[in-house]
Every structure is written in C-alpha cells, then in structure tokens.
Design brief:
two-stranded antiparallel ribbon, mainly beta, receptor, elongated, Lipocalin, TonB-dependent receptor, single chain, signal
C-alpha cells in the first residue's frame, strides 16, 4: 500500500471512527435507559502520521419510535404488555444532542492516545407504568426531564506497528465515570409531585469505569477504493450504586472512494450487540438488543490539515428487548484538524 493512499485511507477511516454514534453501547440499550455517546468507535482516532489531531462533532439522535422485538408497537399495545405480572413502562420520546471534542496524539504514527469528551443535552418524557399508552395514570412514576452536562470521558491507547504498512492495529482503553448520574426530572404524576429520579441509563454518565478493547484493519480493494474492518468490545469493570450497564460488541465494515479529489464518499455497515443492564437500579427487561445500520457519508478535505464531514445513519435491522424507543435516523456533522 502506498503511503499517500494509506494516509488518505486512514484519514477517511478516522473521520468515520470519530463520528459514528448510532452504535454506542447504550444507543439503544433502552429507550428510557439511555443513549449516551460512548462507543468504542469514537475513541480510535486513527492516524498514520505523528502529531496532534482535534475533532469537533455534533450528533442528533431523536428516539421517538416505540419498538418491541423486531417491529414497531403502539402505545396502547405496549401498555398492555406485562413482565412477571408487572406492566411495562411506555415512553414518549428521548431527544438527544451531543457535542464531542476529540483530541488525539501520536509521537510516531505507531503509538497513539485518544481522548473523547462528550457534552450531552437530552429531553425525555415517559408515561410511566400506569398509562393506557396515550395518557398517564396515577402512581406510574411518569416524569419529564431535561439534562445538560458533561458525559463520560474516554481515554484509549492504540498500537499500529503489527505490519510494516501500519494498517493493522489494536486499541486498549477506559471509559471513565466523569458524567453525573444523580440528576432528577420533574414528576408529572399528580399523586407524587416534585422531583423524580431519572433512570440510570438516561443519566449523562453510567457511574462505572468500563474496559475498552478493539482491533482494526485498513486495505485497498481497487485503485481509489479503500475498505476497513473494525471490531470493539466494552464492559463495565464493576457495579456502581446498584447499576451496571450491559456489555456490548461492535463490528463495522466500510468502503470509501478517493477518486474525487477533496471529496471522499463513504458507506459503512455498523453492527451492534448489547447485553441487558443489571443491578437493582437498572431496567433489565427493556435494555439490550441487536442493531444494524447503513451509514452513508461524505468528507470534504478543504485543506491538507482540515476536513469537514457529514453522515446519516439508517437502521436496517433492530431487535430490542422489552419495549424501547428507537430513532428512525441519526445525523452527524463535524470538523477535524491536524496541527
């Protein structure tokens, strides 16, 4: 692989890696229980050159579609479902916006360190567990919430010295419990007015330290065509205040075309499998699932050391446990700089 082509391939992959949001470990772990932007894919920051890179990304994910299993479900049908004799929670929406700053340093193009700092703004509303699927009922713990806060930071090291081309790499890192997890919302239950506890999965942070493992490979399929494969794993190292987020595995495959000069179109297939959350403070019934997304995108390298990008992520398969909210699409915009 020629060095210029490899560098362009790595830059295209790094753009994707730094913006992919829909497959975060909690992206659809539970509609009511979280949608934090904390995926292994976000932490790689791949680069074959030395020096610093910075990435600033804005993501929008509006979970407004009730799903159960592999299909959609109406509010009344969701309210009629039970688990162990208990009614299911019926949520209205979870509107998520993320601004993420990524900083990446490599002294030699072989070793590197990447830091991700997300800021989360989220609106959430739930009808609780005593509704008819349209209007809330008394005693159902229904509430609304608006949270704006820093989320959990990620610090990941990588090694790309396995092959002479530096196109095969390994990553190892931690998700740190920097996000708050004691925020409250406003109860909409007239029988229990006042502050309401927000579900742990909806908090800006999980409260746990998580292990992050990954591997990636870049290659050339034909002149001006490149491809990549990336796998990652995340698991909490312990429980925090009776809550442990479910572990998850990501697999990402993609191609990109480098024959348009400054413009680089890309297409990725993103697969995600996440386990249920656990602990007395968790909602294990409606957490976890298997997801597949098709993600077209475009990068514009308007300078040799700077680029802009935009992606749309479209679900092609969703199988969720219990009843969860899911997005119809997600969108990302960002800018990346080398210095």
């Amino acid at each position: 692989m020629h060095t210029p082509t490899l560098a362009r391939t790595a830059l295209a992959l790094s753009t994707f890696v730094l913006l992919n949001l829909g497959l975060s470990p909690q992206a659809l772990a539970c509609a009511a229980c979280g949608c934090t932007l904390s995926s292994d894919i976000d932490t790689l920051g791949l680069s074959t050159g030395s020096g610093w890179h910075a990435d600033l990304r804005y993501d929008v994910l509006n979970q407004n579609q009730l799903r159960s299993g592999t299909g959609t479900i109406s509010g009344p049908n969701a309210a009629a479902m039970q688990h162990d004799g208990e009614p299911m929670e019926v949520e209205r929406y979870t509107d998520n916006q993320y601004a993420t700053l990524g900083l990446d340093y490599s002294p030699d193009g072989i070793w590197g360190l990447n830091l991700q700092l997300p800021y989360i703004h989220r609106h959430h509303s739930t009808l609780g567990t005593a509704s008819d699927g349209v209007t809330p009922g008394p005693g159902g713990e229904q509430y609304t919430s608006t949270t704006s806060s820093l989320g959990d930071a990620r610090l990941v090291a990588r090694y790309q010295g396995l092959l002479p081309e530096h196109n095969l790499g390994l990553t190892l890192g931690l998700k740190l419990p920097t996000g708050r997890f004691h925020k409250t919302g406003n109860s909409t239950d007239p029988t229990e007015p006042g502050p309401a506890d927000i579900d742990r999965g909806l908090q800006p942070g999980t409260g746990t330290t998580d292990l992050l493992l990954g591997a990636f490979y870049l290659g050339e399929a034909a002149p001006d065509w490149g491809y990549f494969a990336q796998a990652s794993f995340q698991a909490a190292l312990g429980e925090r205040e009776q809550y442990r987020p479910g572990s998850g595995v990501n697999l990402n495959l993609g191609v990109h075309y480098d024959g348009w000069g400054a413009w680089t179109p890309q297409l990725q297939l993103n697969l995600r499998r996440s386990n249920r959350d656990s602990g007395e403070a968790a909602e294990p019934v409606s957490t976890g699932g298997t997801l597949a997304y098709l993600s077209p995108g475009l990068s514009w390298h308007f300078r040799t050391d700077a680029s802009l990008y935009g992606f749309v992520q479209l679900p092609v398969y969703q199988r969720v446990n219990g009843v969860q909210l899911a997005p119809k699409a997600t969108a990302s915009l960002g800018a990346r700089f080398a210095f």
